[in-house]
Every structure is written in C-alpha cells, then in structure tokens.
Amino acid sequence: MHIDLEFQNRYRPVLRDGKSYPLVKRGIYYGARDISSQLGRITGRTNYNDIEKVVSIWIVSEQVPKEIQNTATRYYIEKDDFIGVMDEPRADYDLMEVVIIRRGEAGDLTEPLFDYINSVFAADLDAIDRYTPASRNEKLKEEVVQMPGMGASIYQNGYDNGFDNGYDNGCTTTVIRLVDDGDITAERAAETLDKTLDEIQALLDEYVAKKDLGQADFEKVE
Questions:
Q1: pTM check: above 0.85
Q2: What whole-number distance in Å separates Cα of residue 2 and Cα of residue 49?
Q3: DSSP state of 91
C-alpha cells in the first residue's frame, strides 16, 4: 500500500487568477499519479497485477468553513452490480482512496481521530499515549516534540518561524510550490524569501515548466 500524507492550509486553495478548486480533485489527481508511476512506461508486457493500493490523506488545519469543521470523509472506488452479480475480489478494484480530515478551531474531543491529531499538533505526549505509545518510542517522541507551532498552520507558522535563518533550494521550491497550489500569495512568497515579485514570477514560471515536463517533485514538502 502507498500512503501519501499531505498537510493543507486552505480547504479550497486559490489559484493566481483568483479562482479556487475543490481539494478532493487534487487528492484524486495525486492518487492517480501514484498509481501511474508504479507501472512506468506502458507496454504490451505491462503487468497490471503490480498495482498497489494508494491512500492519499489530507489534513486541513485552517480556513475550513465553519459548517464542515471537525469532519472527515473517505472517497474510494466501490463496485456497483447494476445488472446481475459479479463476485470479484475487492482488492482488484479498490485501488485508490482519498481521505480528507477537516480540523476545527477548538477540535471535537468526542472523536478519537481529532483528539489524537490535535494532541500531535500540540505535542501532548500524555494525550497521544492514549492511542499510541509515543513516550516509549524515542524516534516518534523526537518527531512529536517538534510539532508545537504546527497547530496554527503547518505552512504559515513553519515558514514564518523557520525561514528567517536563510534558505536552500528545497525551501525555495517548497514556497514556490505553495504559490502554484494556491496556498499562499506571490506577495507572501516574496516577503518570505526576501525576493521581488518579478523574481518570484520567474521562479514560478520555471517551476511550472519543470512540472509540466514531470521534472518537479511537487507532491512532497521539502
């Protein structure tokens, strides 16, 4: 199974032209890309048995409409026998799933999922221990204690607090990716990277060109 975990700031990302798009479409696209990448170039010898299930999980932390805060939804492939009955193994068609978790301002502590996620974002090891032994797993503990500051936003706070000490190519690519995805504005990117708007536009044009050629790793936060 292939699992892709994404943190998202906006529930409906805004593009450079001001238009927004539904996050679920992006999740489905990422899942389809992952399935396609498993096979490489398609030939007459391609073995489709090699396809493994892809699960794309999105955690949205901010700018979630009030009425859908503290909700979670699964989107997956289901079989519908509308004429007759076909006894087909589920593993042969249930190959992609998108999960969107929409956090709220306070969090719904009656739901274990949100209690756990909010505890991770707050680096509350005692609360996390109710679900997984984080305090007894040194690697997990080390990662969890780095989480404070992410609660407000994995992107906003992370970049605001962490990019002041200089940038490498990975950080620059990540910020440009956020502009392309509609998570932040070009103006914010220019302020974050200490560049002019013209320089940001040039970087964005270069990034989009590489992405169109399949040369930009735009699915992972660097």
A1: no
A2: 15
A3: G
Residue 8 and residue 98 share a domain: yes
**Cα gap 135→138, rounded to integer Å:** 7
Please, which residues bridge with residue 60 across strands? 8, 102
User: Are residues 8 and 101 part of one domain?
Assistant: yes
- Max mean pLDDT among 31-45, 169-183, 207-221 falls in 31-45
Alpha carbons 164 and 73: distance in angstroms, whole number: 36
In contact, 58 and 23? CB cutoff 8 Å: yes
The alpha carbon torsion through 33, 73, 176, 66 (nearest 10 deg) reads: 160
Instruction: Say if CB 103 and CB 57 are below 8 A apart.
Output: no
CA atoms of 110 and 117, how far apart (whole Å):
13
On the 0-12 / 13-18 / 19+ scale of CB atoms within 10 A, 77 is: exposed
Q: Are residues 97 and 1 in the same domain?
A: yes
pLDDT (tens digit, 9 = 90+) per residue, 176-191?
Answer: 877 887 767 787 778 7
